[in-house]
Amino acid sequence: MPDSRRAAVVDFHIHCYDRPLRAPESFVAFMDRELAKTYGSFAQFLERYGSAESYLRVLDDAGADYGVILAELAPITSAIASNETVEALCAGQPRLIPFASLNPYLTENPARQLERLVRDHGFHGLKLYPTYSYFYPNDPKLYPVYAKAQELGIPVKWHTGTSVFPASRLKYGDPVYIDDVAVDFPDLVAIITHSGRPIWYETAYTLARLRPNVYMEIAGLPPRRLLTYFPDLERVSDKVLFGSDWPSVPTLKGNIEAIRALPLSDRAKEQVLGGNAARILGLGDPRRVSYAGPKPTDV
Ligand SMILES: [Zn+2]
């Protein structure tokens, strides 16, 4: 259980997958290679990690209090993690925080769908995958979605920078396109996932400094090298969010320890590891209601 004597540790970036698996062959081949050492194969990983309990164990082993669980709807590029799968995993588990996804090419009225997902299904944020599904973050067809997210008070995060999955297209991953969204929706929390790795680190850092509502998330970046990529990280430490990208990282614990070992102030480390996320997500706020699962009328 979360330890109230220390600042919360929040992993802002954890994946899950639909069962049976729905994924392109190239994705499965990559995951087989990636997970061979730790789990034997992707199939063996999927057998072990399907339940909420298995995800809570991952958090406990790392000393993390909360994990943001991400839906993913990019069928050309990566495995599907449907909103339903994420909802089922997180229902009744206040430590597992569900983030929905929308694919503007697969949904007729994404803004209305977002409203339903948040109001009726307990989602606390939205993740979009521009490089996986081929749209720019400032695409006008997404503006109603951003307006709705701002109205609902939920954060939006975009995948930015490179991806190892062969079908992804890098041009959509330039975080500079998030600037339009941040300016047009000043009350929307806008999160640059992967901080534009590696060719747009400066863009990500600049936006986090410049725009009060823009945050950088460091999932998938080796924490030991953070200060090489961002020598002035301390200056934006109120705008940086820790995330692991599990299961693509072997241990979450190693990542957290590596951040604690960086030459940053204690306060900066606390903010990066969970303080900022807790503020954005309203963790510890007694008015925050955690989702108990579908109401009887829904099933
Ligand atoms: Zn990821």
Task: State the fourth-level CATH superfamily.
Answer: Metal-dependent hydrolases
Mean model confidence by pLDDT: 93
Number of domains as seen in the coordinates: 1
Q: What does the largest sheet look like? A: 8 strands, parallel
Q: Point out poorly predicted stretches.
A: none
- How much of the sequence lies in strands comes to 5-15%
Round the Cα radius of gyration to an integer and report it.
18 Å
The number of helical runs is 12
User: First CA to last CA: what distance?
Assistant: 30 Å
Strand order of the largest sheet: 1-2-3-4-5-6-7-8
- What is the overall shape? globular
Q: Label the structural class.
A: alpha/beta
Give the SSE order as H and E letters.
Answer: EHHHEHEHEHHEHEHEHEHH
Structure description:
- α3 packs parallel to α11 (252-260).
- The protein has an eight-stranded parallel beta sheet with strand order 1-2-3-4-5-6-7-8, with helices on both faces.
- The protein contains twelve helices and eight strands.
- The longest helix has 16 residues, at 266-281.
- It has one domain (10-282): TIM Barrel.
- By secondary structure, it is of the alpha/beta class.
- It binds zinc ion.
- Residues 13, 15, 219, 245 line the site of zinc ion.
Keywords for this entry:
alpha/beta; TIM Barrel; eight-stranded parallel β-sheet; 8 strands; binds zinc ion
